[in-house]
Amino acid sequence: MSKVLNIINGDIVLNNMRVQRLEGTFLPWGDFLYSGSVPESLSLDELSLVRAKFIASCGLGEFNEVFSEFKERNSTLYSFKKYSKIFLWFESDIYDQLQLIQVLDWFAKFSSRKTKIYIIYPENYLALSTAKELNHFLLYNREIVTHNHFITARKAWSSFSSKTPTALYKLLYDDIDSLPFLKNTIKRVLEEYPNSINGLSRTEHQILLSISNGKKLSQDIFDDCQKFEERPFMGELIFLNIIKELIESNLLNLLDSGLKLTSLGDEILNGKKNYFDYKKIDRWIGGVHITNITPWRWDIKSQKIIKC
C-alpha cells in the first residue's frame, strides 16, 4: 500500500478522518494565522516559536505544550519524502486558506518535481463529511500541485507576512486564480484592518452591530456574527477574546442580563466617534503591526486599503 500524508487544518477534522478510516498519516496544521504576528522571512521553526508564544498569550494552551506540538508537526512535514502522495485538505475560508499558502510556500522551497502533492477541494465541511464523501473528494475533487500553484502561494505568503498591506492588496488585481479561494481570503483579511469610518475591524463592528440588534449572550452573538460571514472561520475562543477587549475598552457593558453597548460603543458603531481615540491599539495582521500610529485603514466605501 502506498504511503499517504494527509495535511489537514486541525484536530476536529483529524478526529473525523480517523473515525471514517481514511488511509494514511494525518498531519493537523493547527494554527489560526489570521490573528497574531506572522513576521516575514522566518523559517518554519522560527515562526513556530513566535506562533506558540502568541497562542499561549491568548490562553489557548501552555507555551511548552503548544511549541512541542508545532515541533512534532514540523518533524512530520520534514519527512515528506517518505510519502508517495501528499494530500492537502483545506476548506475555502480564511483559517484554511492561510494555512494552505503557508504549506505550499514551504513545499515550493523543499520539494522536487518527483513529489506528488494534491490539493483537495471539499464540497462541505470536512469535520462533518462521511467516509463516502471524503473518498469522493479524493477521486473527483483533487488537483495536482503545479509550478503555478507554488508561484501564487509564495507571492501570497510573502505579501501576507510583509510589514505593510500594500502587496497583499495588489493581489486582488493579480492573476492568482490557480488558488480559487485566495482572493476572497485576501479581501476578508484586509477587512480586519481598522475601517476608515470608526476604526473598528469588520469582526468588531459585527459584534457591536449584533448586540445593537438585541443579541445579549456571547453564544448568540457568535452565532449571529457567523451569519454575517461569507465563509465562517473564527473559533469561539478568539471571538470571546475580542468581546473581552471591547468590554475593557468601555464599548460594552457586561450586565446580569448579558452584553449591552455603552454610550461610547453606540457612538463608535454609528461613526460619531473613532475607536482609535479611545483604545490603545496593539495587534497584528500577518506581518503588519497595528498600533494607534499605523496609517493603514480599510475604506469600506471604495473597498480599498488606504493610508491615512
What's the structural blueprint in terms of helices and strands?
Elements: E1 4-8, H1 11-19, E2 25-28, E3 36-37, H2 44-57, H3 63-78, E4 85-89, H4 94-110, E5 117-120, H5 131-140, E6 142-144, H6 147-160, H7 166-170, H8 182-190, H9 202-212, H10 218-228, H11 236-248, E7 252-255, E8 258-261, H12 263-269, E9 282-286, E10 288-291, E11 296-299, E12 304-307
Parallel strand pairs: 1-2, 1-4, 3-9, 4-5
Antiparallel strand pairs: 5-6, 7-8, 9-10, 11-12
Helix pairs in contact: 2-3, 4-6, 9-10
How many domain units?
A: 2
As residue ranges, the low-confidence spans are none
How much is the average pLDDT?
96
Shape-level CATH architecture of the largest domain: 3-Layer(aba) Sandwich
Largest beta sheet: strand ordering: 2-1-4-5-6
Report the radius of gyration as a whole number of Å. 20 Å
Strand content: 15-25%
CATH topology of the largest domain: Rossmann fold
* Global structural class: alpha/beta
Helix content: 40-55%
The coarse silhouette is globular
Q: Which CATH first-tier class of the largest domain would you pick?
A: Alpha Beta
